[in-house]
Amino acid sequence: xxxxxxxxxxxxxxxxxxxxxxxxxxxxxxxxxxxxxxxxxxxxxxxxxxxxxxxxxxxxxxxxxxxxxxxxxxxxxxxxxxxxxxxxxxxxxxxxxxxxxxxxxxxxxxxxxxxxxxxxxxxxxxxxxxxxxxxxxxxxxxxxxxxxxxxxxxxxxxxxxxxxxxxxxxxxxxxxxxxxxxxxxx
Length: 186
Prior knowledge:
The relative contact order is 0.17. By secondary structure, the protein is an alpha+beta fold. It has helices at residues 5-25, 68-81, 118-121, 142-147, 152-162; strands spanning 44-51, 54-61, 97-104, 108-109, 127-133, 136-140, 176-185.
């Protein structure tokens, strides 16, 4: 386990407050005092917004480059206002949103001699994937495979497509595949 449930629930609360504050003022919320001290640890964090069970925004840091509290506040604003796939979240729809924060382990490259070995290394529902080829990079959180009933091959292919490369690129030696785990808080 990376963080406690209490800290995870706090991150969901701060993601909501950050977006609401930004909607009301156009400014970033000041980092509050009295947050769980464990959130000072640098962790990868994604904030996902859903509306009526449909994705409404999802942005995050795969790598642990900022403290969990700072990363959550930054990516909450990005998920609501800067996800290029969606219009900016409006004040009217805020109350319809479901908030999810996923805290990530550090991505670890999967080393294989043959692409078939990925099937032994990846666990659906546990692992998220990052696939990188040259400057192209795609990431899918662990819950994406579960929510879409993906097989491991589907998961690899959809992560490639997210990177903007052909679906079978994961079989190519010039492609790097990483896995990570995530703690999901709603």
